[in-house]
Amino acid sequence: MKNNFKQYSKRFLFSLITVVITVILVSSHTFKSVQVSSDLDIQYIWDDIKTEKKDFIKWIDFNVCYDALDAAYRLDVNSYTTDLHYNWIEILALLACKYGNDFDKYSKKDLDSFASQIKNAGSVEAVAKNMKYYDYYYEAYSAILCEFLGVHEDGSYGMKVFLPIAKNYSFSHYKDFGASRSYGFSRTHLGNDLMGSIGTPIIAVETGTIFHLGWNQYGGWRIGIRSLDGKRYYYYAHMRKNHPYVQGLEEGMVVNAGDVIGYLGMTGYSIKENVNNINVPHLHFGMQIVFDESQMDSSKEIWIDVYNIVEFLKKNRSSVYMSDSETKDYSRVK
Ligand SMILES: [Zn+2]
């Protein structure tokens, strides 16, 4: 028993010494690396930590119905020159809180009620103060809609974005967001298909930088345009075989809202380029919202349902004409 105790004590002492030596070695090493770090290094490390901890929106279910978009838009535009300019995004965020994001409950009376509450309380913050998710909806809807309304070059205020289908060209669409698609692998449909005739000029919805241009197995000839603030990525796919884009487009180039970017077609669903494998000619139109770069080209992409947005964009369509008889390219009417 005594011998056993001695042995344990010896082992314990040995372990203790090992631990102490290890701690000394590790701490001296840590001390050394802190010593050699300049203030600038520390700043970078701190910035990295802050960035990693930074929280950003991971998902949005965009359920705002057309009637709410339309009424909030009218309230915003009609009050622009008055003493109290209502912000349609704030109104929509209040409605989302009231309905728990279920816009089937939408009633114009609620919108009018929020407008008068803001007027009486003096600020939207006062009205939203007990709404737990107001900030979330406000940030989410701002990321989607912040460039939709604004001041034009001539000083007038109104819609700055356009329908992706040129004026006087017909199209049809239905609610197809989340429908299943089987080509390649089982997945859901992350956009809205606008059925129209081959060659229909496709319009840039918002001003932005061409981020992707060229062939993609699923999208065929496609173009991805990112808004200048980086928050919105517009995806236009299945463009026309042989002549998908307006001449002169390249990645990195800025295109303006309302400009012709290409033509409706039926390319895609093929590894081989320039193949028509889509049965019905249509434009696949998608809108991805980006809060953090890690959400680009990853499984964390946020695609929103744009059906009601397309309905809303019908208010502003770009007129076009054939501007080049040789290339048969179209341009917007300025
Ligand atoms: Zn589609």
DSSP helix count? 8
Task: Using the coordinates shown, work out and report the CATH topology of the largest domain.
Answer: Glucose Permease (Domain IIA)
List the domain count as a whole number: 2
CATH level-1 class of the largest domain: Mainly Beta
Q: Which word captures the global form?
A: globular
Mean pLDDT, as a whole number? 89
Total beta-strand segments = 15
Which features characterize this protein?
alpha+beta, 15 strands, 7-stranded antiparallel β-sheet, 334 residues, 8 helices, binds zinc ion, Glucose Permease (Domain IIA), 2 domains
Molecular structure report:
The protein has 334 residues and is α+β, with helices and mostly antiparallel strands. The protein has two domains: 66-159, no CATH class; 180-332, Glucose Permease (Domain IIA), CATH 2.70.70.10. The chain is built from eight helices and 15 strands. The protein has helices at residues 2-36, 39-53, 66-78, 88-99, 108-121, 124-128, 134-145, 307-313; strands at residues 149-151, 157-159, 180-181, 187-188, 192-195, 201-203, 208-216, 220-227, 232-239, 254-255, 260-263, 282-289, 302-303, 320-324, 329-332. Helix 4 (88-99) packs across helix 5 (108-121). The radius of gyration is 28 Å and the shape is globular. The termini are far apart. It binds zinc ion. Residues 189, 191, 193, 284 line the site of zinc ion.
Layout of helices and strands:
Elements: H1 2-36, H2 39-53, H3 66-78, H4 88-99, H5 108-121, H6 124-128, H7 134-145, E1 149-151, E2 157-159, E3 180-181, E4 187-188, E5 192-195, E6 201-203, E7 208-216, E8 220-227, E9 232-239, E10 254-255, E11 260-263, E12 282-289, E13 302-303, H8 307-313, E14 320-324, E15 329-332
Antiparallel strand pairs: 1-2, 3-4, 5-12, 6-11, 7-8, 7-10, 8-9, 9-12, 12-13, 14-15
The site of zinc ion has 4 residues, from loops.
